[in-house]
Design goal:
Helices cover 4% and strands 41% of the residues. The protein has 271 residues and is mainly beta. The radius of gyration is 18 Å and the shape is globular.
Length: 271
């Protein structure tokens, strides 16, 4: 059994379940865009910008499609563990969960590191974010060589397409770039985005990665453009429910909690 040392008082507080308030909102992503901090109010559609669908998973069936995804990092992760029981496919969605069972803090993550790596494209997921503070949902990309050298063009960049830290606000999420893993690690710094009703229903989160830039989108709106840390090597996708590094970070968390993904799609420029 996985074990960690916890203060009983903190654990009893953390074990309180968070009510999952299902919104009656019919929000389906791009159909209704509220007040936001986007750079442009023009909705980007990949099919209308010389992109064509190249890879997708709609999470049909009852199990994870292991020809596309593998469970990621099973075992110790910060103050908890990535555990297979925290990964489910049901009702057309991938569920990446966070929970506390007995004396173990558990979460789930999947990645395409063994199945699908590529360079450049438009990468999009449609998802409903976690409800609570503490653990956070993330959609990101990584190179298998990122710790081998400091040139992002040759060794790759961690591209955080989004991370949702609800303690920063229920309508607020972040994006970031990291490269040169090691003592000289570099970062773009946090890029913040705000969108009304982000915490309610499903939204789309996307990255356009070209040889010249990264562009970050929410519901088809362009929120950030970045030219630092450009990777020119194959990278893989990761979907994860992340656990903080200190117990204090989950004192107000909801257990159980879920990051729900409807689909992931990858588009490539037409030849």
């Amino acid at each position: 059994m996985y074990k960690i040392i916890c203060y009983l008082g903190i654990l009893s507080f953390m074990l309180a379940a968070c009510q999952d308030k299902k919104s009656g909102n019919s929000y389906q992503g791009r159909e209704s865009i509220g007040k936001n901090s986007a750079l442009s109010q023009d909705v980007f559609l990949p099919e209308e910008n010389n992109y064509e669908l190249f890879w997708e998973d709609n999470f049909e069936g009852e199990t994870l499609d292991t020809s596309k995804w593998r469970m990621r990092g099973i075992g110790a992760r910060r103050i908890g563990f990535n555990d297979p029981s925290m990964i489910k496919v049901e009702n057309g969605n991938l569920l990446l969960m966070y929970d506390i069972k007995a004396d173990s803090i558990l979460a789930g993550a999947v990645g395409t590191g063994e199945t699908f790596l590529t360079t450049y494209g438009y990468f999009e997921c449609r998802a409903e974010l976690q409800k609570g503070i503490g653990p956070w949902a993330a959609f990101w990309m990584q190179s298998p060589f990122i710790s081998k050298g400091e040139d992002p063009g040759k060794f790759g960049t961690e591209i955080d397409i989004f991370e949702y830290f609800k303690e920063l606000g229920e309508n607020h999420l972040t994006h970031c770039l990291h490269w040169a893993y090691g003592p000289n690690q570099k970062t773009s710094g946090r890029m913040d985005s705000d969108l009304d009703n982000l915490s309610k229903g499903f939204h789309t989160f996307a990255l356009e990665w070209t040889p010249e830039k990264y562009v970050f989108y929410i519901d088809g709106l362009k929120f950030h453009e970045q030219k630092q840390g450009l990777s020119h090597v194959d990278e893989y996708m990761i979907l994860s429910m992340e656990i903080p590094s200190k117990l204090e970070g989950i004192k107000n968390a909801c257990a159980p909690d879920t990051f729900k993904v409807d689909y992931v799609k990858v588009y490539k420029k037409k030849e």
